[in-house]
Q: What sequence folds into this?
């Protein structure tokens, strides 16, 4: 078969691939080469068009630089300079933690690129990357660009995490060696200390995130597949899933893929309280999240000390510590999420302290008859008040359920409230009926 008849690029050993085409087919031929270039045996950066008879070439002659009978068309640039903004660490199914460069958007091979692989710890160390560095990205073969070289300019050296970003377990460095013709190459790889638990904990976290933000379709099985295939290693990766990635998965039909991606899109703007809950931090459930979100922005919450929370409305010292620790452990994850998600505060939240119960700190004791304690606390928060778990000087109302009013001995909360009253503190003691009447007017 001659190249003239062949539809594909034709390569002779030692030569560039070539193909015959008519002049009015030049664009189509160029496009075909652009598609096939990754499967060619040689690296090509463009196509040279030449007249295929020597007589015409000679008749056209030369300009001062080049022959008129040949012209080179380059493919869109597949290398580009940009700035390193951050390095994310992605945990694989086996516990390998891979660095990924996050860069200022740059055009590469006609696509906008914001991420590039850094392969492994050795490579990161070799590059000596600093945040803010001017870096060179190259895209050849494959879809994922590589960060090839740095031209410096940054200030903060990128250090590998001491804790696994997936599960919080310590990390360790593993060395692998490969024998090559000209010696032995040692590669350092960062690993999670507890890969099995890591996988399970990431599974739980992703499931919790999806359930909290009501991402339909992201059940146990789907999350299993996404983790197994390495398409996600944490919740932030959900936002970078593409139809192409999902299309190759078993039992992922076009309808399911469409639905999943639409659900993810819905969760690109997230209410602050829901965002806090979705992080899966112990003690940062619905109630605490609402209280924090009502009072502060996410940045402010991330900067809180345990005492700020404990002092609040009796969330308590243990809760305060647990929330602060949990947020701290998830620093990298939260930063990664914030590159994908816009966190907003609800209207009611920004109007904090303006509701009918503004300024009130309400504590409940005993078993309420008309609602659960949690619902009652929620109601207080919705009306602009704060709900506390224990009686302090801050408490303005203590709501005492009938069973405790009937009890022969006052509960510790009731006793404390009476003591505070006796000391002149402005705390009011209400029955459940009085409380219901008070909030009925407010609602
Ligand atoms: Zn881990």
A:
């Amino acid at each position: 078969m001659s190249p003239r008849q062949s539809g594909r690029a034709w390569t002779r050993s030692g030569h560039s691939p070539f193909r015959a085409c008519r002049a009015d087919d030049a664009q189509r031929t160029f496009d075909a080469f652009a598609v096939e270039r990754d499967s060619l045996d040689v690296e090509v950066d463009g196509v040279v068009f030449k007249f295929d008879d020597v007589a015409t070439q000679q008749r056209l002659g030369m300009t001062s630089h080049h022959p008129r009978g040949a012209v080179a068309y380059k493919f869109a640039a597949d290398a580009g300079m940009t700035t390193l903004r951050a390095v994310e660490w992605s945990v694989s199914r086996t516990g390998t933690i891979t660095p990924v460069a996050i860069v200022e958007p740059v055009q590469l091979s006609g696509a906008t690129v914001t991420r590039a692989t850094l392969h492994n710890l050795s490579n990161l160390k070799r590059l000596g990357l600093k945040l803010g560095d001017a870096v060179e990205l190259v895209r050849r073969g494959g879809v994922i660009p590589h960060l090839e070289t740095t031209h410096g300019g940054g200030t903060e050296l990128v250090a590998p995490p001491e804790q696994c970003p997936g599960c919080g377990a310590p990390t360790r460095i593993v060395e692998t060696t490969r024998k090559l013709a000209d010696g032995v190459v040692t590669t350092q790889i960062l690993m999670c200390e507890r890969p099995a638990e890591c996988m399970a904990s990431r599974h739980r976290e992703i499931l919790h995130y999806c359930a909290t933000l009501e991402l339909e379709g992201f059940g146990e099985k789907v999350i299993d597949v996404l983790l197994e295939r390495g398409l996600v290693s944490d919740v932030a990766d959900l936002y970078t899933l593409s139809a192409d990635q999902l299309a190759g998965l078993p039992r992922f039909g076009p309808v399911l893929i469409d639905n999943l991606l639409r659900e993810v899109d819905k969760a690109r703007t997230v209410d602050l309280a829901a965002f806090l809950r979705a992080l899966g931090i112990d003690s940062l459930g619905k109630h605490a999240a609402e209280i924090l979100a009502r009072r502060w922005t996410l940045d402010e919450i991330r900067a809180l000390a345990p005492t700020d929370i404990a002092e609040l409305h009796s969330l308590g010292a243990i809760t305060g510590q647990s929330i602060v620790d949990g947020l701290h452990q998830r620093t990298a994850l939260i930063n990664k999420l914030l590159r994908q998600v816009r966190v907003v505060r609800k209207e009611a939240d920004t109007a904090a302290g303006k509701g009918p119960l503004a300024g009130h700190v309400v504590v409940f004791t005993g078993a309420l008859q008309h609602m659960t304690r949690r619902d009652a606390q929620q109601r207080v928060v919705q009306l602009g008040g704060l709900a506390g778990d224990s009686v302090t000087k801050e408490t303005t109302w203590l709501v005492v359920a009938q069973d405790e009013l009937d009890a022969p001995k006052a509960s510790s909360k009731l006793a404390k409230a009476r003591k505070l009253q006796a000391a002149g503190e402005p705390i009011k003691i209400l029955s459940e009926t009085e409380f219901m009447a008070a909030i009925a007017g407010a609602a």
